[in-house]
Write a structure and sequence with these properties.
Elements (H helix, E strand, L loop, with lengths): L5 E5 L2 H12 L6 E3 L4 E3 L4 E3 L2 H8 L3 E3 L7 H9 L4 E5 L7 H4 L6 E5 L11 H7 L4 E8 L9 E8 L9 H24 L36 H13 L6 E7 L2 E12 L5 E8 L5 E2 H4 L1
Parallel strand pairs: 1-2, 1-6, 2-5, 6-7
Antiparallel strand pairs: 3-4, 7-8, 8-9, 10-11, 11-12, 12-13
């Protein structure tokens, strides 16, 4: 069989980790479909998504439609006669009419052991819920969210001395594992050597979309919680690493100042030990210097 024509739908760093693993194995998409450039940061600079940067560096065609629900998108993707679509954290719902365009359907890499943790934040929710055993799933997409039949999955257990991992570290660990699993699945799927199995929908659990407000910590009257509360706060700090980040408010001269936490650990006595912070309007510093 000649090299399959694949269109890859993906947007953030998570998608790039999967693209890296595919490229290492000689599986290169013919087209990368990603979200449009968006304003980012305080200066609102127009910034390309990570998948676009990757595709540009690898000389792969890029398509950035504002919406997938238009005739032009359907016409283009039909005309190019793709064998397979692959979706990894695209960030927009893909209509059923597009999912069925390619000869072999649309595969999705999902960073959980489906049907557990369906939804938009499985990696960060796994940390938040103290789920040290997690994994990745390759499924055949249907019109419902994370609902399609499973083609392959793989458990990933995090070592005790690595837990709780920071969110961005687990993003990469699971995404690269998903990319490696996809490398094995694609030739078997196209060659008719594997069969998709239905999920047990009765066992499904769900995770929510994370917002900036979710990052606020309630440290209580004592700024250093202990025991279970300290551990729950540490899980939150690690889970929300990068985005949305965790923060608390510090009252100074009758005014509340937002303090972002960038690093923390548990002290030997089980209390929360905040290591580094970014006070509003200032650079990162040690928590001791801030106090």
């Amino acid at each position: 069989m000649s090299a399959p024509r694949i269109a890859f739908f993906g947007t953030p760093d998570i998608a790039v980790f999967v693209l890296d693993e595919l490229s290492k194995a000689g599986i290169r998409p013919s087209l990368v479909i990603t979200n449009p450039d968006r304003p980012v940061g305080r200066k609102m600079l127009l910034t390309p998504p990570s998948a676009k940067v990757w595709a540009t560096e690898h000389d792969i065609k890029i398509f950035q439609p504002e919406s997938l629900n238009n005739a032009g998108v359907m016409e283009r993707l039909t005309k190019e006669k793709f064998d397979l679509f692959v979706v990894v954290a695209y960030g927009t719902i893909i209509p059923k009419a597009l999912l069925v365009i390619p000869k072999y359907g649309t595969l999705n890499v999902h960073p959980s052991l489906l049907p557990r943790l369906r939804g938009p934040s499985p990696i960060r929710t796994a940390i938040l819920n103290d789920m040290r055993e997690t994994g990745v799933t390759v499924m055949l997409m249907d019109e419902e969210m994370d609902h399609g039949p499973i083609i392959a999955d793989e458990k990933i257990e995090i070592a005790k001395d690595e837990w709780p991992m920071r969110g961005r570290e687990l993003d990469e660990r699971l995404s690269r594992a998903g990319g490696c699993l996809l490398v094995r699945v694609i030739p078997a799927w196209l060659g008719g050597r594997c069969v998709a199995r239905a999920q047990n929908h009765a066992d499904a659990t769900f995770c929510k979309k994370i917002t900036k407000a979710d990052g606020e910590l309630d440290l209580g009257a004592d700024p250093m919680p202990t025991g279970r509360q300290a551990y729950q706060n540490l899980l939150k700090i690690r889970a929300y690493d990068g985005w949305p980040g965790t923060f608390f408010f510090f009252e100074k001269d009758g005014k509340k100042v937002r303090i972002k936490i960038t690093d923390a650990e548990l002290a030997p006595d089980g209390s929360l030990n905040i290591l580094k912070v970014i006070p509003e309007g200032k650079k990162e510093m040690s928590y001791g210097d801030f106090l």
